[in-house]
Write a structure and sequence with these properties.
The chain has about 120 residues and is mainly alpha-helical. It is built from 6 helices and no strands.
Length: about 120
C-alpha cells in the first residue's frame, strides 16, 4: 500500500495501535507530543544544515542519506498523527480550513512565484 491508497484515518489507526501495544497513552499529552514534533522536525532540519543546493541534491540521491531523511520525516508525521489522534482532530478538515485562511492571506495573483510573507505582498 502507498500514499495513493492509504488514508489519514488508516495512518492514525496504525499509530494508535502501535502506541496502545506499548501503553504509551499516558505519555502522549498535547505538550509532550508538540515537543516530539519539534524535536523530530529539528532532526530533519539538521540533515540539511549548512548544505548548498548541490549538497542537498546529493543527500536526496544517496540511498543511505535519503533513508535517514525519510525516517526523520516519518517521525514528524508520526507525532502529528498521534497528536491529532489523541486530541480528536480531523486533519483533513483542519487542512482544508487552514488552506482557506492562507488563500485569503496569499492570493495567487499577488504571490505567484514570490516567497514574501502576506504582510509584505
Amino acid at each position: 500500500m502507498d500514499d495513493s491508497e492509504a488514508t489519514v484515518s488508516m495512518m492514525k489507526d496504525l499509530v494508535r495501535e502501535f502506541c496502545e501495544e506499548r501503553d504509551w497513552d499516558q505519555f502522549h499529552n498535547p505538550k509532550d507530543l508538540a515537543i516530539g514534533m519539534a524535536t523530530e522536525s529539528s532532526e530533519l532540519l539538521e540533515i540539511f544544515r549548512f548544505k548548498s543546493p548541490e549538497d542537498i541534491d546529493a543527500v536526496m540521491a544517496d540511498p543511505v542519506r535519503s533513508a535517514h531523511v525519510k525516517e526523520e520525516l516519518s517521525d514528524v508525521l508520526y507525532f502529528a498523527l498521534r497528536f491529532a489522534q489523541m486530541n480528536g482532530i480531523d486533519l483533513y478538515t483542519e487542512l482544508v480550513r487552514k488552506i482557506g485562511i492562507d488563500a485569503e492571506k496569499y492570493p495567487a495573483d499577488k504571490c505567484r512565484g514570490r516567497n514574501l510573507k502576506y504582510d509584505e505582498l
